[in-house]
Amino acid sequence: MPHHHYDIAILGAGLAGNLLARQLRQTFPHLTVGMFEKRESTSYKVGESTVEVTGDYLIRRLGLETYLTEHHLVKNGLRFFFDQENRQAPLIDMSEIGGIERPFFKSYQLDRSRLETDLQKMNQEDGVDLHLGCAVSDVQLSSNSSPHQFFVGTKTKKTHVQSRWLIDASGRSSILARQENLRTPESHHTLAAVWGRFRNVTNIDKVGPEAFRQRVHGTSRYTSTNHFCYPGYWIWFIALGQNIVSVGIVMERQGSWQDSLRKADGFLNFLKQHHAPWSLLQEAELLDIGSFQHLTYGTRQYFSPNRWGLTGEAAAFTDPFYSPGSDFIALENDLLTNMIRYEEEGKSIPKLHQLIDRSNAYMHFRYEASMRLYRNLYSLFGSYELLKLKWQLDFPSYYHIWLSEFMQDLHLNEEF
Prior knowledge:
416 residues; alpha/beta; FAD/NAD(P)-binding domain; D-Amino Acid Oxidase, Chain A, domain 2; 2 domains; 8-stranded mixed β-sheet; 19 strands
């Protein structure tokens, strides 16, 4: 039976795993990195919208600014629209919250399939040993200094793998979380989502009179992450480039959610009940559809002193309303890289364990801080007056606390 040994093995070659692999190779070029993905090719995924912590991580930490600017859309912030009670207001008459100039700090709207394909190629060229079409099984986590072990199988062979560090970046498959019973359901914030990609969506920047465009000083609404907000749910429009727009619904399960929304007819019929969003889809073609019945969940543990950890949706997911998913990837990847740095620098085992304990506590804190933005608030999402007040608190908090902290690398400072 073939055998491989790596310093670091990453389970999953999606966004979280690829970004971590790139970061590890740039930080520790002497360490071997293996990445294992059950799919043979990348596919369309949600999670296309990023915000500024992720932007800083992608630019400053990973050196991807030129690539992202050339192949993806630079985002014009978050934008929120509010309807009449009958959901029939014309777009140009809706109340609106959003910026009137380009944000100072960059973020992006990503074609996830293209990005992951390109990152896989970049990582292979940088020395990552990438294995596609490999199903991981029989994971045996080490409880001492011996290596972790698992098997990967293809259609033709099975390979035994050992690694000093093992990182789960397998997304909602959550290989380690399920095996170790780490998943914690979010019983008080239960959301479902359905989404699809559309071609030929009307460009919102070309709608209405000049006065409508000048209301935002001529900046682009099309490249914003647009939220149409209603009591108990919201509808997103996210441009991805190449005439493709992602459109989705996030809704409280105890509200108007029905499983029929997960089918194309139910999805489109629901959108038709909303005049302004549907007006942008009159000439559009639905390309595909996807859904999650349960969006939000936590984890009992992010990182282990036994040299394993979770990143991205393999660990936890809060709520997509403010697009924080990739921010959590940035934080978790930074913290994992910092733990490996401690070991590489010869820090004592008690020091490494102390760092891992603090990193776990920090991520639990960040998860709870994020959840407090959303719990018990969906019923208020239809109110322009209340959301404007919330926006005036949440946005400065994000910039002056979370973004400022990340840009100064304070999340990597143990004393902080």
